[in-house]
Amino acid sequence: MTAERLARMRQVLDRRQPDLTVIMAGVHKEHNVSAVMRTCDAVGVPEVHAMGVHGHLAVKRTAAAGVGRRVPLRHCSDIEQGVADLKAAGYRILGAHLDPQARDFRQEDYCRSVAIMLGREKEGLDPEARAVCDGFIAIPMLGLTESLNVSVAAAVILYEAQRQREQAGLYDSPRLDEATYQRLLFEWMQPKLARYCRERNLPYPALDDDGHVRSLETG
């Protein structure tokens, strides 16, 4: 069973997309935060950013034990600094917002480094958030409803990103750097031991082919 779990964890890590991420700029409702993170996990987004909010966002308890470990939520109350850091890393920031200049979300190129910014549940992106975006995308609405729920909008956009990336072959081979890959593999396979090591500033021990900690005797 452990060997099967190790194989499953490797399969997931092999498809993580280190240059695709999501920014929740003011999203604060627990069920929406959790739903966005679950979608991110499903399409291979390795981490999510919460910006422009004070304190730590709550991840719904039923989801925290799983998705919260697989897709860490990075907090930054200063949205300008948080976005500047992502831009310095090469990300283009696309705001999901009903701006007059917004493009149909299907017309964007999601195969390059991109961060999708989502705004508050009712108000959308505030002026501070809009000011740091490189462009805007919108989901066409053909009925009287003006917008989708933020977690639904995130899913629609992310699955378009997944579709484009699958066509480009970006899921065909591992894209995480080796150090990150091995760190995540250990943390997913041995969460309690990983926490113990982090608390004591100890290096992670090696794993064997079944995902168990390799004994000193066997090297």
UniProtKB/TrEMBL annotation:
Residues 20-159 form the tRNA/rRNA methyltransferase SpoU type domain. It is an enzyme of class 2 (transferase). Its EC number is 2.1.1.34. S-adenosyl-L-methionine binds at residues 139, 148. GO terms for biological process: tRNA guanine ribose methylation. The keyword Methyltransferase applies. It holds the Pfam family SpoU_methylase. Coiled coil: none annotated. Keywords: Methyltransferase, RNA-binding, S-adenosyl-L-methionine, Transferase, tRNA processing, tRNA-binding. It comes from the Bacteria. Residues 163-214 form the RNA methyltransferase SpoU/TrmH type C-terminal domain. The keyword S-adenosyl-L-methionine applies. GO terms for molecular function: tRNA (guanine(18)-2'-O)-methyltransferase activity; tRNA binding. It catalyses: guanosine(18) in tRNA + S-adenosyl-L-methionine = 2'-O-methylguanosine(18) in tRNA + S-adenosyl-L-homocysteine + H(+). Catalyzes the 2'-O methylation of guanosine at position 18 in tRNA. HAMAP family: tRNA_methyltr_TrmH. Belongs to the class IV-like SAM-binding methyltransferase superfamily. RNA methyltransferase TrmH family. This is tRNA (guanosine(18)-2'-O)-methyltransferase. It comes from Natronocella acetinitrilica. The lineage of its organism: Bacteria, Pseudomonadati, Pseudomonadota, Gammaproteobacteria, Chromatiales.
